Amino acid sequence: MVSSSSIALTGTAAPRFADGVEAYAPVRNAPIQYLRAFAAFFVVLSHASLVDGRFAVFGVSLFFAISGYLMAGLVRSTEPFRFLSHRVLRIYPIFFLVVASSFVASRLLGSPFSFDLLSMTLAPVGLRSFSLGGIEWTLVFEVSYYTALFILACARLQRHLNLVAAIWIGAIIASTLLMPSLGNRLYLPAHLLFLAPANLAFAGGLLLPSAIARGYLPRASTLLIIPVALSYDYVDLGTSRMLSGVAALCLVGWAAQTEQLPKFPGSKLLFLLGEWSYALYLCHVPILKTVAFLWPQPIHGLSPQTVALAITPLLLVFFGSLDLALYRKLRSLADLSRPRTLRIAMGAFVAAFLGLAVYGSVVHILDGLRDDRIRSTLRTLGPKAQTSPEAASARISETGLSAPNGLHGVFEQADAVADDKVVYRGWATTEGGAADDIAFRAFCSNRQIGIVWHQRKLRPDIAESLGRQDLAKKRIGFTLFVAQQACPKGSKAFVIGFDAAGRAAVLSGVNGL
């Protein structure tokens, strides 16, 4: 999710874009800001486990629909390099500040903190270790949208934006039918990102100005929210994201056509929360995690989530105000900069972003080939190998699939983290040094459990204990995030490492949850 600048489009006037499409004049629009505030609340309450996860799905769809609607006007009316500079300055500075604040807090409190340089770029490089708990996936989508729109504008194809959006929507629907697993994945490489069902809200948002101007989206269409909400229990996640996108588009269409709502108690505060929605989105998960770390058990009936929600408004005043002030200042400086300087800066950004996107796609394809080899190895080992580390070791030895490069390591203690997940930490090495080519799979209760390999870490403590000073500056640590329900309490999990050829070795150190 990302909050745009504090402009929105309303129905007070109907100028025309360069392609002849009627649009609404850019002015501040309270209903749009109210929707931003509600969208942020939906996501926050869902992550705090106070409401169903479908609220988060709808909240993100609202953000995407609003963003697509605003970008449809901005990309047509703003010089391409200036358009991109505004978007970059809107997203990255406050994002970096929140990550830096989270890092400082984690060091002071001794709580876990994940960092990966590639994830900080917000480029579509696939699954990485995200410092803010994974909410960055929406920012990756948004930055990818803005970069694509910039390229479209540089090619002077803004007049064909409606056609591009319509083709894009068709591709999303087709991809969802042909690759339903896309609906369950959020951390995607560039060649798959634009095909995910979550894109429907943004792509539809690009069509909203024209649809409204031509009378194709009456305000009564907001009633579609009711059947969409009732259908959530009967469709998969990908379809749910698409239906949420449709409902969000109808709601944003209503807000865009509403010049003014009657004043009501709290309307000014709600408007301000809409302005601060991006800061709220960024800071709420670090707050939830920090409070859960300090307050692991309910005290006097107060849950950690409740305490976190009580603290969030205090920090939101700081980060929200800082966010808006910082953006306005930086945008002003960018607008005053020389055109050549702006072109060089944004050209460098796009070149780096596209380079990382290509890298992410190549790595994803290679990882897919490796996964095929791992699946082949697991089929050869058979289901018995998934029952215990002893059985796995025996089957690996019997089948001659032992990794020949001396793969060994330890699967360390598990710790509960937010969102009903457990983080397992460990390390692995080979005779030649760091286990750079090793992929890990965790098993529990006679089956492979859902895992994510988030990062590698320096482990000088292990290097010293092994007497391997050559490993002191090498990344031999790994982190695996597992859904808590995947390995019931009292069960034991273990990890098998696979090299590039699919050969395997069991890591020692079995730990229960």
Secondary structure: elements and pairs:
Blueprint: E1 8-9, E2 26-27, H1 30-47, H2 54-77, H3 80-109, H4 117-120, H5 137-154, H6 161-178, H7 190-193, H8 200-213, H9 225-231, H10 237-256, H11 267-275, H12 277-294, H13 304-336, H14 339-381, H15 389-399, E3 408-417, E4 421-430, E5 433-434, E6 439-444, E7 447-448, E8 453-458, H16 460-466, E9 475-483, E10 492-498, E11 504-506, E12 511-512
Antiparallel strand pairs: 1-2, 3-4, 4-5, 4-9, 6-7, 6-10, 8-9, 10-11, 10-12
Structure description:
- This protein has 513 residues and is α+β, with helices and mostly antiparallel strands.
- It has helices at 30-47, 54-77, 80-109, 117-120, 137-154, 161-178, 190-193, 200-213, 225-231, 237-256, 267-275, 277-294, 304-336, 339-381, 389-399, 460-466; strands spanning 8-9, 26-27, 408-417, 421-430, 433-434, 439-444, 447-448, 453-458, 475-483, 492-498, 504-506, 511-512.
- The protein folds into two domains: 8-293 and 301-364, no CATH class; 382-512, Immunoglobulins (Immunoglobulin-like).
- It has 16 helices and twelve strands.
- Strands 3, 4, 5, 8 and 9 form a five-stranded antiparallel sheet that branches. Strands 6, 7, 10, 11 and 12 form a five-stranded antiparallel sheet that branches.
- A hairpin with a 5-residue loop joins strand 10 (492-498) and strand 11 (504-506).
- Helix 9 runs antiparallel to helix 10.
Task: Report on the biggest sheet.
Answer: 5 strands, antiparallel
- Report strand %: 5-15%
The number of distinct structural domains comes to 2
Total E-strand runs: 12
